[in-house]
Amino acid sequence: MKNKFCNRFTAVGLAVLMCSYNVLSSSTAQAIPIQNRGGNYILAPLTDTKYYDWMGEKIWKAGDSITDQYFLVCNNFGEIYDVFADPGKYKYNEETYEGIDMYKDPDLQTCAFDKTSSFAMMIADKNNTSVDLSKKLEINDRYAQVGTFNVFKTVTLNLEKGLSVKNGGLLLQNTFSGSVSGADSDKQKIAVYLGEPAEIEEGGRLILDGTESATVGLVNSPASELIAPDGKNAIVVKKDGQVEVAQFEIKRSKNDDSAAALINVENGGNLRFFAGGGKDFNPDTGMPEYIEGLESSDAKVDLDNGASSSPAVSVANGANVTVEAGDFTAEGAGAIFELADGATLNLEGGKINNTTDAPAINVNSGATVVIPEDSKAEVKSENGKVAIDLDAGSKVQKGENLITVASVEDDSASNYVDNYGNIVLQSGSEDKKVAPNTIIKPDGTAITGNNKLPDVDANGSVTIPEGGAIVTNPDGNKIEVDKGDNVPSIVIGVKNSDGTLATSKRVELGGGPLSLEIATFGVDLKGYSQSVTVDNTNVVKIQGQNKNIAVSPVGVGEATITVTYSKTDAPNDTLSATFKVTVYKNSSGGGGGSTQKLNKVYRAYNPNNGEHLYTLDEKEFKHVTSLGWHDEGVAFMAETEKNGQALYRVYNPNSGLHHYTTDENEKNTLVSLGWNEEGIAWYASNKPQSAPVYRVYNPNDGQHHYTVDGHEKDVLVSLGWTYEGIAFKTAPIEK
Length: 735
Description:
Layout: E1 4-5, H1 14-21, E2 41-43, E3 50-52, E4 58-61, H2 77-85, E5 118-123, E6 130-133, E7 137-140, E8 143-148, E9 154-159, E10 163-166, E11 168-173, E12 189-194, E13 198-200, E14 204-209, H3 213-216, E15 224-227, E16 235-237, E17 242-246, E18 248-251, E19 263-265, E20 270-273, E21 277-281, E22 288-295, E23 302-304, E24 313-315, E25 320-323, E26 327-330, E27 337-339, E28 344-347, E29 351-354, E30 361-363, E31 368-371, E32 378-381, E33 386-390, E34 395-398, E35 401-404, E36 415-418, E37 423-425, E38 438-440, E39 446-449, E40 455-456, E41 462-463, E42 469-472, E43 478-481, E44 490-495, E45 501-502, E46 504-508, E47 514-520, E48 528-534, E49 540-543, E50 549-553, E51 557-567, E52 570-584, E53 599-605, E54 612-615, H4 618-626, E55 630-638, E56 644-651, E57 658-661, H5 664-672, E58 676-685, E59 691-697, E60 704-707, H6 710-718, E61 722-730
Parallel strand pairs: 2-5, 5-8, 6-9, 7-10, 8-11, 9-12, 10-13, 11-14, 12-15, 13-16, 14-17, 15-18, 16-19, 17-20, 18-23, 19-24, 20-25, 24-27, 25-28, 26-29, 27-30, 28-31, 29-32, 30-33, 31-34, 46-52
Antiparallel strand pairs: 1-21, 3-4, 21-22, 33-36, 34-35, 36-37, 37-38, 38-39, 39-42, 40-41, 42-43, 44-45, 44-47, 47-50, 48-51, 49-50, 51-52, 53-54, 53-55, 56-57, 56-58, 59-60, 59-61
């Protein structure tokens, strides 16, 4: 049965002894399933080893009261490993293994375990804290646990030939019993010295777990250490290998300025830095399974790259590295993480700091750095401004948004993440969804300079550059901000065809209601209550609340709508925005009949998405042409309300397209499907002498086009557009 184990990994071996002999009844430790299962596991304490409880008192000595168990007691780790590596060559010899019952059958002349058996070995003697192995520690098709137990000193494990794990697992762990609060627990750690790299191959899993101090919270032991061999990698993670590091420092020896990375993660390898904490143990393998919610509150993971100019972690194509916790530093010219094309780095937590002016992370073309929405990671270049350097073609995934950095003609163009989490994209994104000269703030707000890249001050605040900028919130709402202006917290307005919010509008009396949108920039309105007021109810009336506010003109004049948000628990903490409406009425001349002047309907063309915009609003027309839309002159003439037919304009917030129709039912259907109602665009003519306006439809992208030019209509139909007949009529066009 699988034992729940949340207090301590008590005895990479000793817990079995506690269950078997009840020698530590006062401890809160529980057993783990490293126990004899028909010869599958061997517990291997050293001869004459003294074991200590949580107060440092001796409790057991190897060789005492051993009966009916499969224990192997040897003089040193080398002897244990010899049996572990090739058990079949060891015959029963009562003189060699005096008093040790290793056999199921007294007549059996070989060990009761084979080359697929697993073992656990503990180092628990205060007087013998250095363990040497001259052979390579190889874990193939089996599992092993090597650890300390209540030593209260630094235990050194010297692996002269390194180690390898393939199709199995190895746990190296510093271990306490129960709720250790006495003795010298703040001095206990394990230091693993490698003479050759640790190689984790296909199906192999290496767990470095330095201490479980977080589980009970009363132990303050230092992080354990893994020291790289001079001039070589400490760890090589090969294809389908997995390494997990908690409460461990992986470091170079004092004078090693090697060109080799501390950790080399090859194609298909996986590396994870995490907090450690409470765990269960798999009964079949003895390997830990960490429990969510019992993580350490004080993660001591670290990479000490020394003064090396090489990266601490080199991540190859197809490799994956996850940082959940830890405090990583670099003092040399090398980055802490170097991502090759096709590599992925997940930044969920931890502090990654390069103390020089070099980037902490280099993301080469084709590599991806993932920053989850709830990431707690802090990345910094202490003496520089580039925390994460982004090559052209590299990718940044922030939340659900994936940005591929566009290529640059000028090699001096800067694309990076700064010390404050701002994503700086001078070249923009490859798909053009992020324009050049854009900075994306940590909250997702994007600031795009009209003429140049915005500036970031010493505190990480983004300032508007010369020529102004377009500010876009995560919902896609945009506002224009001039140099020197502050970005407002909230904006209320009508969305133009380019996505910007107009904070004022001139409308005709009798026209349909305006649909106002509320956009926030860098604030969260949770915990705020909303109020909407108008200063002149003789001009407009308002209906609705939250994000669905409709403004209907009822009289000629000007009115200002004010939206105010007050914090529920602090009423004086308010945010507000205003929207100005001017309502006009077309005048009529004297004498019989109307001589009211007709108004021009302008046409502009967007070369990016192929949309044509038709508008009576000359200010809107001039605005979009200033942004790069093509001026195509006057398309139609708007009739007076008396002699005309209302023509409605609706907007699709998903595609960014507008639609124009005199059919109120068609308009209402589109609005019910999520289109935004933009009221009466103008009045079409219903006079017999008026010219027809043709409507055609593009089945590929869903656009409609309107034209009085029969030849233009015929050309579009020949190109695959669908002719939908006469949409409405226009008075003779004034050029």
